[in-house]
UniProtKB/TrEMBL annotation:
Residues 3-112 form the STAS domain. It comes from Thermobispora bispora (strain ATCC 19993 / DSM 43833 / CBS 139.67 / JCM 10125 / KCTC 9307 / NBRC 14880 / R51). It holds the Pfam family STAS. One of its GO terms (molecular function) is anti-sigma factor antagonist activity. It comes from the Bacteria. CDD domains: STAS_anti-anti-sigma_factors. This is Anti-sigma factor antagonist. SUPFAM superfamilies: SpoIIaa-like. PROSITE patterns: STAS (PS50801). Coiled coil: none annotated. Belongs to the anti-sigma-factor antagonist family.
Length: 116
């Protein structure tokens, strides 16, 4: 299963839309996109996980690493629209209290996207 990553930015906010599976084989692709994105110093990054079917511990580690690097620069990483399998991983590991988790991509970002 391949991983597709699309990033769009507006102001100090970026939305990273991910689809497919985040695992040992595809996580480096997501990690590379976060590294590129973090170098632009966004204040807020929202990862849209509505199309992510599976995320293993490697994927979770990529998210945690990105969160750490963003917070070091005064930013934050939020998780939006995780499917039930991904949401369960976040809950079981306690990461649902580490990340801000939204049921959907926040409306203010959708509005920004259309103004784009």
């Amino acid at each position: 299963m391949e991983l597709k990553v699309a990033t769009r930015s507006s102001g100090g906010t970026a939305i990273v839309a991910v689809s497919g599976e985040i695992d040992l084989y595809t996580a480096p692709q997501l990690q590379a996109e976060f590294a590129r994105l973090i170098s632009t110093s966004p204040q807020r990054v929202v990862i849209d996980m509505s199309e992510v079917e599976f995320c293993d511990s490697t994927g979770v580690n990529v998210l945690l690493s990105a969160l750490k690097r963003l917070r070091e620069r005064g930013g934050d990483l939020e998780v939006a629209a995780p499917r039930s399998a991904v949401r369960k991983i976040l809950q079981v590991t306690g990461l649902d209290s580490v990340f801000t988790v939204h049921d959907a991509v926040p409306d203010d970002l959708l509005t920004t996207e259309h103004k784009g």
